[in-house]
Design brief:
Strand content: 5-15%
Number of helices: 25
Helix content: 40-55%
CATH architecture of the largest domain: Orthogonal Bundle
Low-confidence stretches: none
Radius of gyration: 27 Å
Number of domains: 4
CATH class of the largest domain: Mainly Alpha
Distance between the termini: 71 Å
Strand order of the largest sheet: 3-4-5-2-1-6
């Protein structure tokens, strides 16, 4: 177990203050766990506990480090110091003991893997692992890759831990032990008392993990998923016809699995990885939002389902209905405007790549309109469509159609990144040109003409200013 030089410097600063104030401070929890597991977070969180006066200690430390400071919980003595360095942001949390002793405090933590402690004086010495305090089998559970409740009241103390057990399992590649899983099932309804902002944050940790499918299935199996997404209940048992081999909900789960497989297949593609790692809001990545989109992509099908006279089942406009339902989910999870705008594009346009693949070839005009409509979420929509299509294996879905879809998606993904690296084409004419040349007043017509000109220029139909003005004249007359 090794701490980075930057972390050691911070730990030494905390230790100096604790020594000056004659206070025993312990390094506890997740930072120790991650150090043992060799997990390096971009912006580390370091937890400390002391018998009492954590808030006054943290306030004094913040002044000495010239760092940010906030009281998290005055009643229970919890505060946070945020120290920015050249390349990292360290979050230092200080709390009073939850109990009379360190042993009692550790027992009040959520899971055994987070019950490790280390005296701060030992933490800054060589070989700190030799002095590790492990009272509740944390190291054994880490070796066995098990998430185990630290005590029988852990979910009563904070019901969010019902979901956090799964986020830890996903992030660490661990399994939840059977006894803890039984507890979760019996206490699941307590999750209804937790704010959706807190639920969202744990949910996004699961969605951001490389293999969240197993957790998603288990959450569905024990009834937690429907607490988070009550909208999914109507998807169960909805038959989809001969193109599909699964009902709407089982298809959704399979599409989630296939999406994760598609992402894993591109694990060495830097363009795609960087794209998925983009933070859309408050540390939440596009990757997680894309997986939320695949959960919601067919959520409009139950309302859209119609059975025709010939027995054919249709789901016309399910993408529009689904987008409207997804808005309610986004509002409940308190997603940002940027996240909602991205999610909306993913759900609304998820059928578009399939339509493109159905044609004999994707024309320059069709490509332009696809990239125009999906904008920054073009690759998200394509990856979602791959998961969706791979999860569609009914009798009328042929290997040939699947291959065409795969090739179309791959080609468009490459083209997206190629276009992003190219210099943007400058307009041949602008709004002032239209006003002067055609004596137009500022109006929506100018925007309409410019949009059509952008398309004609992109597909090579106009190549000079003169050609652009002629085309604009034709459009103006027709309008």
């Amino acid at each position: 177990m090794n701490f980075s030089p930057q972390a050691i410097d911070l730990l030494k600063a905390v230790y100096r203050l604790s020594r000056d104030r004659k206070m025993k401070v312990y390094l506890v929890g997740g930072y120790l766990r991650d150090a043992i597991l060799s997990r390096d977070k971009i912006n580390p969180d370091i937890d400390f506990c002391l018998k009492k006066n954590a808030i006054s200690f943290g306030r004094r430390l913040a002044r000495e480090l010239k760092s940010g400071f906030v009281v998290l919980d005055k009643e229970h003595g919890a505060c946070r110091v945020v120290k920015k360095t050249k390349d990292k942001i360290y979050t230092l949390d200080f709390t009073d003991f939850r109990g009379e002793t360190l042993e009692e405090d550790l027992l009040h933590r959520d899971f055994t893997i987070n019950t490790l402690a280390l005296s701060l004086g030992k933490a800054i010495q060589p070989k700190p692992l030799d002095s590790l305090i492990d009272l509740y089998g944390a190291c054994i559970d880490m070796r066995n890759k098990v998430v185990r409740a630290a005590n029988n009241a852990t979910f009563d103390e904070d019901p969010l831990r019902l979901l956090r057990a799964f986020s830890f399992a996903c992030m660490l590649g661990f399994e939840i032990d059977k006894h803890t899983l039984k507890f979760i099932k019996s206490k699941k309804n307590k999750l209804k008392t937790v704010s959706f902002e807190r639920i969202r944050d744990e949910l996004f940790k699961i969605l951001d993990a490389p293999d969240g499918f197993g957790c998603l299935v288990e959450l569905d199996k024990i009834g937690i998923l429907k607490i988070i997404f009550p909208e999914i209940e109507v998807m169960r048992g909805i038959n989809q016809g001969p193109y599909h081999h699964l009902d709407v909900w089982q298809h959704t789960l399979e599409a989630f699995k296939q999406l994760e497989a598609a992402i894993a297949k591109h694990s060495k593609n830097k363009d795609i990885l960087d794209y998925l790692d983009v933070m859309l809001s408050s540390g939440r990545k596009r990757r997680a939002l894309l997986k939320l989109a695949v959960i919601l992509h067919d959520i409009g099908k139950p309302k859209a389902r119609r059975k025709q006279k010939d027995g054919k089942i249709t789901f016309y406009r399910h993408e529009k209905i689904g987008t409207d339902i997804a808005r309610g989910v986004a509002e409940r999870l308190k997603l940002s405007n940027d996240e909602w705008n991205a999610l909306k594009k993913m759900v609304f346009w998820h059928l578009r790549p399939g339509y493109l693949a159905d044609g004999k070839q994707v024309t320059p005009r069709a490509k332009f309109r696809y990239f125009r409509d999906t904008a920054d979420e073009a690759v998200s929509v394509l990856l979602l469509s791959l998961g969706d299509q791979r999860a569609t294996r009914g009798s009328l879905t042929t290997p040939a159609s699947r291959l065409i879809h795969e090739k179309t998606a791959a080609s468009l993904i490459k083209e997206y990144f190629r276009r992003k690296k190219e210099k943007k084409i400058e307009r041949l004419i602008n709004g002032d040109d239209l006003i002067k040349k055609f004596k137009l007043s500022p109006s929506p017509l100018i925007g309409k003409i410019l949009r059509q000109m952008e398309e004609l220029q992109a597909i090579g139909r106009v190549k000079s200013r003169q050609e652009a003005l002629k085309a604009a004249a034709r459009i103006a007359v027709k309008s």
